[in-house]
Write a structure and sequence with these properties.
Blueprint (H helix, E strand, L loop, with lengths): L1 H21 L6 E3 L2 H11 L5 E3 L14 H9 L2 E4 L9 H5 L6 E3 L4 H4 L7 H5 L1 H4 L5 H10 L12 H18 L4 H26 L6 E6 L3 H7 L2 E7 L8 H12 L5 E4 L6 H7 L5 E4 L13 H18 L2
Parallel strand pairs: 1-2, 1-3, 3-4, 5-6, 5-7, 7-8
Helix pairs in contact: 2-9, 2-10, 9-10, 10-14
């Protein structure tokens, strides 16, 4: 008798488990990368949770979706990403989503007009770079400048604001009953962003004319917005080490003291930076383009910008 009861219990438990697995996973706003998650978290605060696909330490340049990621995308209220030129891994799953649940930031008309061409790569250091680009630099350029434009759009405070407006619009369509809260959240975000922007402008003004090298070409929007003076970058694609010729050009500029700082990144601490700066007075700093270690709250995006600004300022000031 007991044996039958046990069998019945296990059968019921298995049935319950199977039915719970069949239910759609919890819906949320899903952002491809953390900085987009930061903006989304500000707008959806108190309304719906936000999840980020890319784990800390992973690179947006070469991420592969796991089966659990595919499920999250399918069940999301809204998927927010830059576009196929940045997150190639999302091209297929995003295409399968209804338009109301798919927000591609690079495709927004208000953003398109602000895109920086990938070609600013040459302008930055044309005197050393235009005549004799190394083959490796050239191949990485075509392979990884994400097509015609630089796609690190979350680095621009202006584009972040346009992104917030677009996220607000999409969530309003999906959740019209939350209009008052969504409106208030957008207003708060815009006010905090304007305040932070002013503060960063003041913080970076004294170091505007100081030259430096960044490890990879991710910061153009931030640098342009705040009038900084990058001497160039080591590589366009952080997965590809720069060629010998490129390193020689950078070393020459460091020896001639055209740059006071060389920046690595948390997930890329390449030996080439140590090698190229050895024996020079150049300082080494770290820039975090994805906000690792910052958790998702309504203030995360302004924290991210402020952190980036402080990372620039402390190395360029020599603190």
């Amino acid at each position: 008798m007991l044996h039958n009861k046990q069998r019945l219990f296990f059968t019921l438990s298995a049935a319950t488990l199977l039915s719970s697995l069949a239910l759609p996973a919890h819906s949320a706003v899903v952002a491809s990368i953390k900085p987009l998650g930061f903006i989304a978290a500000a707008i959806s605060e108190g309304i719906t949770p936000v999840e980020v696909l890319l784990p800390d330490g992973a690179s947006e340049h070469d991420y592969s979706l796991r089966p659990s990621d595919v499920k999250r995308i399918k069940n999301a209220d809204l998927v927010i990403w830059i576009g196929p030129e940045m997150e190639a891994f999302l091209t297929k799953p995003a295409a399968a989503l209804p338009a109301s649940k798919n927000l591609e930031i690079a495709a927004l008309p208000a953003v398109k007009s602000q895109l920086i061409r990938g070609g600013e790569d040459e302008d930055e250091h044309e005197e050393s770079h235009a005549s004799d680009k190394s083959e490796e630099q050239d191949s990485s350029h075509t392979h990884h400048h994400h097509g015609e434009y630089n796609m690190h759009l979350w680095m621009s405070p202006k584009i972040a604001q346009e992104s917030a407006v677009a996220i607000h619009g999409k969530l309003l369509e999906l959740m019209p009953e939350s209009k008052a809260k969504l409106d208030a959240n957008l207003q708060q975000f815009e006010a905090a962003l304007a305040e932070t922007d002013k503060h960063i402008g003041a913080q970076l003004a004294p170091v505007r004319n100081k030259g430096y090298f960044v490890f990879h070409d991710a910061y153009s929007y931030f640098e342009k917005h705040y009038g900084l003076s990058p001497a160039g970058h080591f590589t366009v694609n952080p997965e590809i080490q720069p060629g010998a010729q490129r390193l020689h050009q950078i070393r020459t500029q460091l020896v001639e003291q055209k740059a006071v700082c060389v920046f690595a990144e948390p997930q890329f601490r390449p030996a080439v930076i140590d090698a190229v700066s050895r024996g020079t007075s150049v300082r080494k700093g770290t820039l975090d383009p994805l906000g690792m270690g910052i958790s998702l709250t309504k203030d995360s995006y302004v924290k991210f910008l402020s952190q980036l600004s402080s990372q620039y300022a402390s190395c360029l000031n020599g603190a």
